[in-house]
What does this fold into?
Amino acid sequence: MNKAKVVTIGLGYIGLPTSALIAQNGIQVHGVDINQNVVDIINKGKIHIVEPSLDIAVEEAVNKGFLKADIKPVAADTYLIVVPTPFKGNHEPDISYVEAGTRNIIPLLKEGDLYIIESTSPIGTTEKMMRLIYSLRPELEGKLNVAYCPERVLPGNVMHELVYNDRVIGGVNEESTNKAISFYKQFVKGELHATNARTAEMCKLTENSSRDVQIAFANELSLICDKADINVWELISLANKHPRVNILQPGCGVGGHCIAVDPYFIVSDYPMESKIIGTAREVNNYKSFWCAEKIQNEKLKFELEKGRKPKVALMGLAFKPNIDDLRESPAKYIVSKVLQNDSNGDYFIVEPNITEHNVFKLTDYKDALEKSDIIVFLVAHKEFQNLNILESKKILDFCGVIK
Ligand code: SAJ
It folds into this structure.
């Protein structure tokens, strides 16, 4: 095996596809992950996550000898930090993985090396890591290239978007920016936009906060329309006929690992200034709580009217349509909350994208529809579109399946 050119720290949802893509371009990559099991799987040319086309890319990269996984880094010319940045209990960002990954490679750095953070990070993280590096390797001060370059790929389309999306690249100085751009040019076909590190960090947070705020607007409309007896889906579709209006869709809250997380990175550092961003988070979280309440109320109403408990179909668990990913899912939160408040109730839980779940007993969606009195649509999966539902059944449509 040739000497590694690139070390990637983190072989998860972004780190592994990125490593495979770089390696597919004939560049020697040494991928590092703290999980020995993950390392072993990858070294067999297999993958531990679900992402279309990733299996082929990893198999090819490993078989051709351009990608090797390890639990320890080796010396290279470029180091990419691609680890998670979750938040702590108080919604403060946790950059401990970025710091641990950085500390791991500090002893290996040499003059002229390129160090890039890709992980979503609070403003100033790149400069902070640079200061950490120079505090431990003072002889390298000013002799490294340091940059921030966030990814902006959509889960499910990662292998395509990694190549074709534009990227924002911000160095701590001009030379760092230029070096980082030259690096990405080797495997990215989208445009590469130069800026500084702080702007690049804020850009990632801005993109996801913008989407969160826009979804909050749609969710707020849905609450108003519910009280005002207006069909919110019709309303939005009509308002969007205006040439300069483009409202997103309400749902049962915002989930996933990005949109519902990243805005907190701004709010926690700039609480006085980020009023709209903070409120959007609250509105989107409240929407899930509201949906759960709405289900309870509908059940009580049914019981009062019919003198018996209703059977309820809870349609969807994933965090968005047509995927099997349940992490940070508002639908899952709502189902748990409803069950928690009424453990003796008669529920049919449906998620067509998974076959079994360790907590919830799943029912086929057609069965659930047939047997239930109240049908609650939580996720707009394609299976739920255009269903024939008897008029006698009560429908709660939180995600616009019926419209
Ligand atoms: N949602 C709505 N209404 C909408 C659109 C989405 O309620 O009109 C909800 C979804 O149901 C879901 C949540 O928002 O619960 C997030 O879904 P998403 O499709 O907006 O985003 P993700 O988390 O799958 O991927 C996002 C993408 N960001 C943007 O679209 C701005 C992706 O490009 C980013 O790279 C990714 O986050 C990331 O890693 O940051």
Notes: Residues 311 and 346 are 5 Å apart (CA to CA).
